Amino acid sequence: MLTFRCKRFVLLAIAYVYFTVDIVFAKPLKFHLSKTTPRLSLSSFHKRDNVVLSLKNNNDEYFSTTINLGTPSQELSVIFDTGSADLWVMNNNNPHCLNNSVSNITDSPTIDCSQITTFDYTKSTSFKKLSDDRFYINYVDETYAEGEWATDTLTINDIPISNMQFGLALNATTPVSGVLGIGFQRREAVRGYPGASNEFYPNFPEVLKQEGIVDVVAYSLNLGQTSSIIFGGLDTNAYDGDIYTFPMVNVYPTVVDKPATLSLTIQGLEAYDSNGQKTSQIFNSKYPVLLDSGTTLVSFPMEIAEKMANFVNATYSEYESIYIMDCPSDTINTGFVFDFGDLKLNISLASFILPPDGESYCGFGVLPSSGSITLGDSFLKNAYVVYDLENYQISLAAVAEDNTLDQNIIDIPNDGKIPGAIMASAVAWNSYDESDTTTSSIGTSKASFQSSTLQTVTKTNSVTKSSQSENIIFETVTEYIC
């Protein structure tokens, strides 16, 4: 069986789509934060304007960063994710770990924890459990993490943050050390399941501003050759050409009144051939697109994915669950132009090629979806992105080809008006009616969990290959709307 280097992480990437695309929590201001939000304190702290974190590229499969949790601190490597909002870490006594001496799991999924870092809360003198509320998150690949909410001292770049809230996964089948989610606070996994706290809390980006570490809940992301994230600032030497500021779009306009995902508008997509002469318009309609560091590849609606695959002579393999094609030469000049209106990003085919493991053909890293577009790491490596969660805007530029320049970090202003940035003039997407091939079937029903009544929106996404009679299910998700 053909095994791509990132194939074993495809399910993980799709799993994060569940949390990054399809769960929305509305209007956090309706809820009081006092129940689960302890008082935070920064001892011996001096005001900073920004915080720079280095990111590690793990074999082109995902990006991670290092945190220190507890007293004395324990170093943990966690997946870095713009698409979710919680910090959670795996407990060292997780019974699903194959190498765990206390494991009594015989018929449930097990994972190899020997290569990941885990947290031993019994060794931390500053660890505190938060009530009896349950922490729980599950993914489309049917893995999950569950346990309890807790607080402890989080240290990043020698900055100690006391009483940082996080999820401690006492039982987990998701094969990762943990996740540092930095999305909107209202996307936190605190609602929609039995035992949930039903209380939002200041997550990591919110805490940085709350404690005076940064001035604005905003950050810039560079997944190029020198991967890093800067909270509260951006590096003007990390991108080439002009940087444009686009409004975020609300992909749930009938449910919430403000954006809940880190999405903007794409105006079209064009492909060009190996000689740079032949071009093909893949689509020229407005679509909302999610820019998500927690997803490895990119996904497009079936019709668009098929057009992209046909242009590069890739065919869908039911056996491999991915498009496959002849491996292109190093000199080929084929690629795609991502049209955001004011800004067009030219990304070569090489960014979407999945190298084989001992085979003569390659994978084409474009996944069909049922209607949504997610641009993951394979796209983000070519872009410099500034996410401004306070002013609901995203600034975008081509990532710098020359990564030898020293950093030139400037602050992101409170009003979001980045010096030198150009406000986009292209009309933003605001309705699924504008997207010709985008369809959405969402039905609503009522559900009650403990004392809270939630509106439950269930959406089952299925895609049918034109040449097949059977349905291929890529995502099955449940949304919980406050």
TrEMBL record:
Positions annotated as active site in the UniProt record: D81, D292
GO biological process, one term: proteolysis
A Pfam family per the record: Asp
Span of domain Peptidase A1: 63-397
Keywords recorded for this protein, A-Z: Aspartyl protease, Hydrolase, Protease, Signal
Domain of life: Eukaryota
CDD domains noted in UniProt: SAP_like
Annotated GO MF terms: aspartic-type endopeptidase activity
PROSITE patterns (UniProt xref): ASP_PROTEASE (PS00141), PEPTIDASE_A1 (PS51767)
GO cellular component terms attached to this protein's record: cell periphery
Entry similarity comment: Belongs to the peptidase A1 family.
Protein name according to UniProt: Similar to Saccharomyces cerevisiae YIL015W BAR1 Aspartyl protease secreted into the periplasmic space of mating type a cells
Classification lineage: Eukaryota, Fungi, Dikarya, Ascomycota, Saccharomycotina
